[in-house]
Design brief:
Elements: H1 2-44, H2 59-62, H3 81-84, H4 86-95, E1 98-103, E2 106-111, H5 114-122, E3 129-130, H6 133-138, H7 140-143, H8 152-162, H9 168-172, H10 175-194, E4 199-201, H11 202-219, H12 224-242, H13 257-284, H14 293-300, H15 314-345, H16 347-361, H17 376-388, E5 394-399, E6 403-405, E7 408-410, E8 415-419, H18 420-424, H19 427-430, H20 469-486, E9 487-491, E10 499-502, E11 504-507, E12 512-517
Parallel strand pairs: 2-8
Antiparallel strand pairs: 1-2, 3-5, 4-12, 5-8, 6-7, 9-12, 10-11
The protein binds protoporphyrin IX containing FE.
Main location: membrane
Cofactor: heme
Pfam families: p450
Length: about 525
């Protein structure tokens, strides 16, 4: 008997040691051996960059506080690259416009050279692009397997179902919802001004309204369940923002277990709420024309381009609704916010846009959506704002196979970080007036006179370009038209110019404006 127990104990101990050795090997391989191999391969292929250290990579240098102080809204105020990405601006000086840096044990190929970008994207079809696994894991509660993160044939299927929903004809139905939410916001502004409070933080106002608009246009929030989802989506975003995550560093999630757990639970609750919304919709949708993106997707689930069978499962529909919310509302809200800053500091353009609105819409009380296309100058202003302040400040990809660019090979697994702010502020591409607000650049050229077509990419590039841009164009024009038709505005003395990155490019201290009724 004793011998039997001894043998059992021996076998158990051997199994434990083997398991421990296997675990150590796995950890060593993924945290040390594999990154070292990639590092050496990148070096052999001529990609230089700042020297990483284990296990943080180059994060220490990236998280150092920027010495630069806040800028006043003068001409040079728009020279933001070295203040929002000081480490990239510094590394560019010593390593050029294409180099490798490391987030923890993850290699990132930094790209701010449009010619390199063009050659690289010519080698890869849209469905073969990956998205950095570290970001996919980190933002899973927000995007799940939605279009932003999904890859391969599944991406093709999702994109086929989703693209028709964003057709301008479908979006026009949603214009009334946009007018309704914006008018509610502006009525509140009028009340505040009447009670002698003309200073309004328009950033938070517009972000709230854009959140409401995207919720209405994506999945409808007229029901209690819809309101509930909106509240929880906002809490989820705050929870993920609050957690100080060292993306790319092995086991970094263990540093903030509370937030990680909270985000996971919220993600699950949101999914459940969405699933019941979808269930209700399926029952009530028959015979009714779709009023929002979810309605269009449910309709598209049976017929797309006349073909049957390209469908999304309920969980995939949930992930898409979350993706529209997180991918769509802040980017658009911030585009409008930065526009208000630039119009407040360029009253000539504020007046020009007001004149254009009068001319095109002819002072009609009801806003005619079909005429918005005539607001050409407003279109140039939007392009110029997204050049100076690209609210999506970078585009990310991952190589799913080796990619050849000239004589160099980007190894499979390498992440890519395309620095949109860097390219949009590059004097070699735009000329000496690169940091000036000049919407007229876009008068006769959709690339704003940029010397390289890949140098202007506010909505990304190639087949994975932003699917929601038509919705943004519509919302931007409606919100701005309604604001300019009722108010004039100047910058408040309390404003501090400090653009910063928190996923999107935003004014760190909000945007207080002094607003007057016309
Ligand atoms: C000013 C507003 C917006 C900006 C600056 C913006 C920017 C971007 C960028 C840079 C990408 C990545 C493209 C790439 O990888 O090449 C993207 C993708 C995407 N955007 Fe937007 N976006 C905006 C508004 C919206 C809106 C309103 C929605 C939806 C309601 C939306 C949904 C998406 C989705 C689903 C993708 C993934 C597309 C794919 O990978 O196939 N975006 N956006």
């Amino acid at each position: 008997m004793e011998y039997y127990f001894f043998e059992l104990f021996r076998a158990f101990s051997i199994a434990m040691v083997a398991f421990f050795l296997f675990l150590t090997w796995r950890i060593l391989f993924s945290c040390w051996i594999s990154p070292t191999q990639v590092y050496q391969k990148l070096r052999r292929n001529g990609f230089g960059g700042p020297t990483p250290s284990f296990p943080l990579g180059n994060i220490t240098e990236m998280t150092k506080k920027n010495g630069g102080s806040s800028l006043g809204p003068s001409k040079s105020a728009h020279d933001i690259h070295s203040s929002v990405f000081p480490y990239f601006a510094r590394w560019q000086k010593s390593h050029g416009k294409v180099f490798v840096y490391w987030l923890g044990t993850e290699p990132f190929l930094y790209i701010a050279d449009p010619e390199f970008l063009k050659m690289m994207s010519a080698e890869v079809v849209a469905k073969s692009w990956g998205k950095p696994s570290v970001f996919r894991n980190d933002r899973d509660p927000m995007f799940g397997n939605g279009l932003v993160m999904i890859e391969g044939d599944n991406w093709v299927r999702h994109r086929h179902v989703i693209t028709p929903a964003f057709h301008p004809t479908n979006l026009k139905v949603m214009a009334t919802l946009m007018v309704e939410s914006t008018t509610k916001m502006l009525d509140k502004w009028a009340t505040l001004i009447n009670s002698s409070r003309p200073e309004i933080d328009v950033e938070s106002e517009i972000t709230t309204t854009a959140g409401e608009i995207i919720a209405k246009t994506s999945f409808g929030i007229s029901y209690q369940s819809g309101q509930n989802v909106l509240k929880k989506l906002k809490t989820l975003q705050m929870t993920l923002f609050k957690s100080n995550r060292f993306v790319g560093v092995p086991f970094s999630k263990l540093f903030c277990p509370k937030q990680t757990r909270e985000a996971k639970m919220l993600g699950k609750e949101i999914d459940q709420l969405f699933l019941s919304i979808i269930d209700d919709r399926k029952k009530s949708i028959k015979g009714q024309p779709p009023q929002d993106l979810l309605g269009l997707l449910l309709r598209g689930n049976t017929h797309v381009d006349g073909r049957l069978g390209r469908t999304l499962t309920p969980q995939e529909l949930v992930d898409e609704c979350k993706t529209f919310f997180f991918g769509g509302h802040e980017t658009t809200a911030l585009a409008i916010t930065w526009t208000l800053l630039l119009l407040a500091t360029h009253p000539k353009w504020q007046n020009q846009l007001r004149d254009e609105i009068r001319e095109v819409l002819q002072d009609h009380k009801e806003l005619d959506v079909n005429k918005l296309g005539g607001l050409k100058k407003m279109g140039w202003v939007m392009n110029e704002v997204l050049r100076l302040y690209p609210t999506a400040p970078n585009v990310q990809r991952q190589a799913r196979a080796d990619i050849r660019v000239n004589e160099q090979t980007i190894p499979k697994g390498t992440n890519m970080w395309i620095d949109v702010v860097g390219m949009h502020h590059d004097a070699a591409l735009w000329g000496e007036d690169v940091n000036e607000f000049k919407p007229e650049r876009f008068e006769n050229d959709i690339y704003g006179g940029c010397k390289h077509k890949m140098g202007y990419v506010p909505f990304g590039f190639g087949g994975r370009m932003c699917v929601g841009r038509n919705l943004t164009f519509l919302e931007y024009k409606i919100v701005l038209t309604l604001i300019l038709s009722r108010f004039s505005f100047t910058i408040s003395p309390n404003y501090t110019h400090s653009p910063s990155i928190l996923l999107s490019l935003r004014p760190r201290h909000g945007l207080p404006l002094i607003i007057k009724p016309l």
